[in-house]
Write a structure and sequence with these properties.
- By secondary structure, this protein is an alpha+beta fold.
- The protein folds into two domains: 6-77, no CATH class; 96-144, no CATH class.
- 33% of the residues lie in helices and 21% in strands.
- The protein has five helices and five strands.
- Strands 4-3-5 form a three-stranded antiparallel β-sheet. Strands 1-2 form a two-stranded antiparallel ribbon.
- Helix 2 (32-42) packs antiparallel against helix 3 (52-73).
Length: 151
């Protein structure tokens, strides 16, 4: 029995011995860098030669090398993750502000029929004002309005 051989139990209950090289062959692993990484990952620090951390670090180096080799086989030095040119993000729809034309009615004004009328952004209508009309426009347009200018 070598350092890599383990006892396995098949689904029908049979006992058999296999080592990491048999597993690599069964999975048709032909890249030696991948095989080295698998060997290090299956038994890190258990073979007595190196620590667990050292075996894991060496597996990482082997995986990195396997990636380099796989990328070299791709046309035009592409990537394994099939990174294509990202689609441009759609332009965000402009945020809208709804202005409400509001009227303030006080008892003394009812007889004279002269009411105060002003525009307010929807969320900023004072308690004693009542909306009578609405107008919606992009927030950028609202920001461009001069101080005190109404829509």
């Amino acid at each position: 029995m070598n350092n890599y051989e383990m006892t396995f139990y098949s689904t029908d209950g049979k006992v058999f011995q296999a080592d990491v090289y048999s597993v690599l062959e069964a999975f048709d692993v032909t890249c030696s860098a991948r095989g080295h990484a698998v060997k290090k990952l299956l038994m890190p620090g258990q073979r007595g030669a190196k620590s667990e951390v050292q075996d894991l670090e060496e597996a990482l180096v082997s995986v990195s090398r396997a990636i380099d080799m796989a990328q070299a086989r791709l046309p035009d030095g592409g990537t394994l993750t099939d990174e294509t040119e990202p689609e441009p993000e759609p332009k965000p729809k402009p945020k809208l502000v709804t202005w409400r034309r509001c009227v303030r009615i006080e008892p003394r004004e009812i007889g004279s029929r002269s009411f105060l009328v002003e525009w307010f952004p929807s969320g900023d209508i004072p308690a004693d004002w009542y909306p009578i009309e609405a107008h919606t426009q992009p927030i950028e347009t609202v920001k461009e309005l001069a101080e005190g200018q109404q829509p």
